[in-house]
User: Fold this.
Amino acid sequence: MSPTPPARRMRLGLPRRAFSQVLLMQVAIAAGVAVLVTGLFLQPLSRQLDHEAMQRALAIAQTTAEEPQIARDLESTAPTVDGPVQRAAERIRKATRAEYIVVLDWRGVRWSHTDLRQIGRTVSTDPSEALAGREVMEIDSGTLGRSARGKVPLRASDGSLIGAVSVGIAYDGVRARLLSAIPGLLAYAGGALAVGALAAWLIARRVQRQTRDLAFSDISGLLSEREAMLHGIREGVVALDRGGRIRLLNDEAHRLLGIDDSVVGTPPDEALGAGRTADILAGRVTGTDLLTVRGQRVLVANRMPTDDGGAVATLRDRTELEQLGRELDSTRGLIDALRAQDHEHANRMHTLLGLLELEMFDDAVEFVGEVVGDHRATAEQVTEKIQDPLLAALLVGKATVAAERGVALWVSDRTRLPDRLVDPRGLVTIVGNLVDNALDAVAATPHARVEVELRAEGRTAVLRVRDTGPGIPTAQHELIFTEGWSTKDPPAHRKRGIGLSLVRRLAERQGGSATVGDAPGGGAEFTVVLPEALTGAEPEPVLAARADLPFEEESR
Assistant:
């Protein structure tokens, strides 16, 4: 016969399911407790029954020794099987149902016994304590077997010690009483075991529901897989209990939020500080793909409640994506501006062709000089005021976009910024966001204008962006810097509500500030102050103030 395949062999040992294992362990524990309690109860019961038997034997011996006739007969007669001592002892034994009553003299010779052959012989156990005048209780073995004994001294009428009385209670009777108590005790133990088994079954059913009838090995494997998954994915995961306290953070959540395991067990407000991120984790702000800013990072958060009353929040880093989106916006704006310039260039070429065909050569030369001078003057004037190449390039591009949108973008003549910036990319982000918001604010308004002022005051950089739009209500001056807040519809490729929040975060990171107020003549004025934004301590000279001119007018 071929051996049984390994897959079909019976597996011995504990069952695999958690329900079966818990039930088996609980029943085993209940059975063990029942057996232990039964044993602990029987042991004192046995001692109690032994003590009661010895007390009874001692009482019978005391009663026998108090009979004055037995003492007189012991002194005046001989130890015979039909003597008065034997008859008196047998009468008392039968009345008390003792196993035996032995009366002995001071030499230890028996004068009475249930076995008549033992009368006149010396006792088999040591009578010295009783013959010394002391009462004795004990469990001992003699000629009649094991018994509970009571021994008392026997005295004459004058008080002299003439012998002793020994009474025995059959130990089998004590054992019988003990055994008779066991069935009732086992009944109680069985009832307790049944109750314990029922409780074990209920607990096992609860465990079965909570573990979904998985084996403990499966649960252990799931926990290991969960740990590997949580710490391996590139999304931050934050788990909260039903009390709203943080109970789990994976590695990515540590990195994105900038916190460590010391915050476990604390609410989000305490761990992160007041803000939109804490509000999202706590569930005070609801929705899907919620934008929030943590430090320099733009995060997308989602929060899902769990069955136990807690919640799990996931965090995705959208910083690079937001930067790409803003670059895409700028690129699209530049493309639109180039398209407009191409159209304008074609018109100029047609004009130049007409002048040439009309042989108006002097006018053609003057026209070409004016067109070339426009563009050269605009770039030169920006770079003269703003010596940092990144910021200068940004404003030249924004001026082109503004012209296409019918907005006059002005650079204040008070602008003067040397090429000594500590973080030029951060300032580019701030200026770009504020200019974009200003262009959106003045869109489709008459005489739309945006003015940019950038100047250095020692090592501090001060930026002001003014527009001629509808302005911002005073009640919303702080609200507009909140992540996710916006009055405009989002573009298709990204969400709004983070530009101004990033501006404030970048400013505060450098120890500065970002505020908004009302511009002179209407509109909004954003002011950003960046201490220690420039290297070196020497302030740059400020140009003499003169009337601000738009790029188009300054080039003429």
About this structure: Residues 2 and 8 are 13 Å apart (CA to CA). DSSP finds 15 helices and 14 strands in the chain.
